[in-house]
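U., I forgot to send this yesterday:
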Amino acid sequence: MSNTEPVRATIVGCGGMARHHIRQMLQQQDTTRIDVVCEPSPEAYAATAEIYEMAGLEPPPNEPDLGRLLDVYGAALDAAFIITPHVYHHDQTVACLEAGIDVLLEKPMVMNAGEARSLIETRDRTGKLLVVAFPGSMSPQIRKAVEMLRSDELGKLLSVSATVWQGWGPGTAGKWRQDPAISGGGFLFDTGAHMLNTVSDLVGEDFCEVAAWMDNYGRPVDTLSAAMGRLGSGVMVTLHGCGETIPSCASGVWVFCTDAILYTDIWGGWLKIQRRGRKRFRTVKVPASLGVWEQFLAVRAGEIPNPCPPEVGLRMAGLWDAIKASAAQNGVPVRCTG
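Result:
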């Protein structure tokens, strides 16, 4: 890609996570040029401008209104990286796709399965690219795990067990992540969304039935959760999230097959395997991760297939809808609609 012109991008949302991505993107100036950002908060834009100033660079202009940004800059933009609170993802993505701009969309993709189907329709109608920025699906470790599972070299898939924990409740108190109207959920739909997505990606099929329980632990949104589900093939899955533990953030995903066990985390940070006849797990060696923006550029250039299309987001959204519906009935099993 070094022989091509840099991708002309806009960043929609300049909060803490966006600034993390911007720091990485500024190390890729041969392939990326951030022409404009969209941030309604003067404080967040000032923090973004400071990153540029510390790097000796001129900050991009800020247009707080996305509609006006697309009217003024849209024809000159190639891509948008949307990194905003969850409730805004659907409408902002539709606007960018319809403006002829490819989109890298921060997780979780949307609030529910209906919005997921809408994004797929918009993607198909506009012919533009939509990639969901789940580091798990975009990691070489998870892609290798999916390849191994689909090739049947591990035997039959039997069950999956996944857990994630973090001191999330105290750490996000008073912030938008605990406002259900904006976030769409609590710990399980925020940090836990990585778990829901990675498991959905690994199994590669829809859940058909789910039973779930959630506890808000005195907060406006859930921070403790447990769910179990069954796939159409009969594979069984357990999902557990604890957002009220000590200051920490970690996870584990175990995939049990007839001939091997895979072990990874919800972000695809590693991949280990224990094969039949072996006493220990060993690390599966894969290429280093490119990071979500670099992977997005590789997809745009046709160098790799889309590792996290909206169809994966739809599978996860259907699972989330079923979890909410079951938890609202104190664990009554519900059918997934997808």
